[in-house]
């Protein structure tokens, strides 16, 4: 399980669309996910396999059906690792600037 | 699918025993669960409570399954938001499976209510809790200190 697999899986509009559909309605079968999509069933199955491999989709057997769930844990990890961290740095740089300027003004 | 459900999966580089201990030791849980306190005797049928840092009760229930280091389940109901409490009992299962040099942790949370607000509410929290747990076990630090 690594970030590369997650970024690669996300670098595709069809796969992001599938994640959006699972976000709207979690726990869908392959058939349900294929509805109204301009993709073949084979293509959807292939994209789902890539998403599952990247751990962005989790699956569960229910009787004879396989249900697909969006798994946002890796996205959360990436948000922390690659987004929030830099945002914090930017904010602390700004607050350091503010302190420095205010310190200058006061002296 | 009837009812509402989510299934979250994370792979943590640790042993099933260490992960089990992290899931069932209240002092440790606090570190990755935003200072929430778990109160239970950790056996099947024991009442279970989760408290906010200020002592208010957040959720109540009981230990439904306790099979170390493989499977832990809770009967679970929200206690502090009337609109969530009214939806009744949910079921939360944590499964641990060895996977190469890691452990696959699957957390599922189910309720017999369509478009459940409760499931929507907890599904916002779980990814943060699980990211924190993973980070704490693998690096000794949590990724997110505040909710």
Brief rundown of the structure:
The complex is a heterodimer of chains A (107) and B (147). Chain A contains 5 helices and 2 strands. Chain A is mostly helical and 107 residues long.
Describe the protein.
The complex is a heterodimer of chains A (107) and B (147). Chain A folds into two domains: 1-71, Winged helix-like DNA-binding domain superfamily/Winged helix DNA-binding domain (Arc Repressor Mutant, subunit A, Orthogonal Bundle); 72-107. In chain A, 67% of the residues lie in helices and 11% in strands. Chain A contains five helices and two strands, in the order H-H-H-H-E-E-H. Chain A has helices spanning 3-10, 13-24, 30-34, 41-53, 73-106, and strands at residues 57-62, 65-70. Chain A has a two-stranded antiparallel sheet with strand order 1-2. Chain B is built from four helices and seven strands. Chain B has helices at residues 16-24, 26-32, 82-85, 117-139, and strands at residues 4-12, 37-40, 47-51, 57-67, 71-78, 90-99, 102-111. Chain B has a seven-stranded antiparallel sheet. In chain B, a hairpin with a 6-residue loop joins strand 2 and strand 3 (47-51). The mean pLDDT of chain B is 93. The chains are: A mainly alpha (107), B alpha+beta (147). Chain A binds chain B through residues 1, 26-28, 55, 58-60, 62, 67, 69-77, 80-81, 84, and chain B through 1, 4-11, 102, 106, 108, 126-128, 130-131, 134-135, 143-144.
């Amino acid at each position: 399980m690594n970030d590369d697999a997650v970024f690669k899986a996300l670098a595709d509009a069809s796969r992001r669309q599938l994640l959006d559909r699972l976000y709207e309605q979690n726990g869908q079968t392959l058939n349900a996910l294929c509805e109204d999509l301009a993709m073949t069933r084979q293509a959807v199955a292939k994209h789902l396999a890539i998403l599952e491999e990247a751990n962005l989709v989790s699956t569960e057997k229910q009787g004879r059906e396989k249900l697909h769930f969006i798994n946002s844990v890796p996205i959360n990890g990436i948000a922390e690792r690659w987004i929030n961290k830099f945002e914090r740095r930017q904010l602390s740089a700004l607050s350091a600037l503010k302190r420095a300027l205010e310190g200058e003004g006061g002296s | 699918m009837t009812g509402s459900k989510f299934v979250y999966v994370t792979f943590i580089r640790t042993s099933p025993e260490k992960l089990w201990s992290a899931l069932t030791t209240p002092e440790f849980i606090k570190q990755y669960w935003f200072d929430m306190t778990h109160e239970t005797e950790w056996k099947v049928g024991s009442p279970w409570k989760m408290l906010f840092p200020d002592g208010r009760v957040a959720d109540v229930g009981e230990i439904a399954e306790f099979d170390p280091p493989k499977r832990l389940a809770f009967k679970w109901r929200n206690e502090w938001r009337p609109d969530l409490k009214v939806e009744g009992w949910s079921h939360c299962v944590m499964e641990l499976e060895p996977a190469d040099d890691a452990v696959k942790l699957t957390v599922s949370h189910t309720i017999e209510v369509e478009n459940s607000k409760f499931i929507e509410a907890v599904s916002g929290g779980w990814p943060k809790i699980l990211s924190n747990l993973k980070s704490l076990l693998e690096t000794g630090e949590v990724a997110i200190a505040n909710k």
